[in-house]
Amino acid sequence: MMHLFILVSYAMVSAVAGFALSQSLTQLAPTTCYLIAGAGFLAAALTHEIFSRRIEQRDMLRQLDVAFDEIDDMRESNLDLTESLVRAREEMMVLSSAVESAADGTNRTLMREMKVLRSQLGHMQKVQRPKTERAGREKAGGKVVSESPIQEMTSVEANINREEILGHIREALETNRVDLYLQPIVSLPQRRTRHYEAFSRIRTRDGRIVAAQQYLEVAKQEGLIGTIDNLLLMRCVQLLRRNEKRQTDTSFFVNISQHTLNDEEFLAQFIDFMASNPNLAARLIFEIAQQDVAALSKVALAQLGRLGKLGFRFSMDQIDNLDIDFQGLAQANFRFIKIPINLLVTLPEDGADWVHPRNLKAKSAVAEINLVVERIEQESDVIEMLEYGFDYGQGFLFGAPRPSSEEARAA
Question: What is the DSSP string of 9-41?
Fold first, then answer.
């Protein structure tokens, strides 16, 4: 519309110019004047067209530049989006692989655990008749024999007969009523709980507790003590796995009895299970009685050596002879020795096999073995042990065994 108005203006100016020329230049014919005016109109129109096209081209170039810039921006955005999609895809692949690996690892761990438990349940089902009493002193999942019997609020009657106890044991094994109890082991002199020792308790159908001193001998005679020990061992492992993100500085002492050490099939399966759970090494300490340490077979020593190479530590307890080879135990990865307080404060009549507590502490320090004084029940005992610089204490003075669920809530 603007261009048409300009052209009309040029035409009017040319017409006026032609009329003016015909009037002022009489020597020229009017036609010639109007032709000259027309030529001027054409020149003006062409000049206008040229400048208009240049302006349009400049505007178009500017628009093209803007469009190209926008295209470049879009291309960069697309590249960024593509890179983000590639990274997201890679992360999803990594996450998928991690999930699959974790699932496979969990499945493998569960399979190993089920295999170990199935081995014990199979052994339990084979025990159907009384067996001859085995020689040697053993424990049922941690220390269950104490100078001061544990007073259970819901314990069974003291005069219960052997057959009833055996029935309670078998029923507890069949119905999963072998409970895990924990007793604190405290550092001296701070009395801060550093470790726990695991114990087993048999629970009857009506919720009463069969004390260790009641079922221990019966379980040994019937060949069930190994099954109780091994189930307690697995129960402790399960507790650690459920709470592996808590109490990273707290360890658990759990007994490996003579029956477990002699059960080559279970021991091999259990060590394979431990090898698949190396994170338990820092929190699980295997406890072996002194007489069982002395009687270890070559096969058992080799298996314990495998555990030691995995980083697991050992403790020796049920000490009745203070003539201890500290260096030999240290080389076998024993890091704790538990000594009953009566061996430290009571001098035998003939003085044989007695070592002064200060000498005992000095030998253990050289071998880098911690000494735990057991069965502490009086404050006077603590004072005497502090004079000798012992590392840890355990006993009813610091806390009686409690169900593992209570200890977990108190932690």
Answer: HHHHHHHHHHHHHHHH-TTS-HHHHHHHHHHHH
* Torsion, Cα of 167, 168, 169, 175 (10° steps): 110
CA atoms of 39 and 46, how far apart (whole Å): 10
101 vs 232: which has the higher pLDDT: 232
DSSP code per residue over 294-348: HT--HHHHHHHHHHHHTT-EEEEES-------HHHHHHTTEEEEEEEHHHHH---
- The CATH label, of 3.20.20.150, 3.90.1010.10, 3.40.190.10, 3.20.20.450, for the domain at 127-410 is 3.20.20.450
| Closest by Cα among 207, 208, 203, 230 to 139 | 230
Cα dihedral: 130, 132, 134, 138 (round 10): 20
Question: What single DSSP character describes residue 276?
Answer: T
Take residue 49 and report the two structure tokens written for it: 């067209």
Task: List b or e across 67-105, with b for residues whose CB sees 16 or more CB atoms inside 10 angstroms.
Answer: eeeeeeeeeeeeeeeeeeeeeeeeeeeeeeeeeeeeeee
Nearest CA among 269, 250, 202, 209 for reference residue 229: 202
3-state secondary structure of 65: helix
Residue 230 CA neighbour count, 13 Å, CB half: 32
Burial class (CB in 10 A: 0-12, 13-18, 19+), 239: buried
Mean pLDDT check: name the lowest of 10-14, 56-60, 206-210.
10-14
Residue keyed to tokens 């190479």: 309
Instruction: Quick: pLDDT tens for 247-265.
Output: 567 899 998 888 888 888 8
Q: CA 153, CA 331: separation in Å to the nearest integer?
A: 43
User: What is the pTM (predicted TM-score) of this model?
Assistant: 0.64
Secondary structure class of 271 (helix, strand, coil): helix
Round to whole Å and give the CA distance between 184 and 96: 42
Task: Count other C-beta atoms under 10 Å from residue 269's C-beta.
Answer: 19
pLDDT at residue 147, rounded to an integer: 37
Distance CA 411, CA 193 (A): 10
Measured distance between the N- and C-terminal CA atoms of the chain, rounded to whole angstroms: 90
| CA distance linking residue 397 with residue 377, whole number of Å | 5
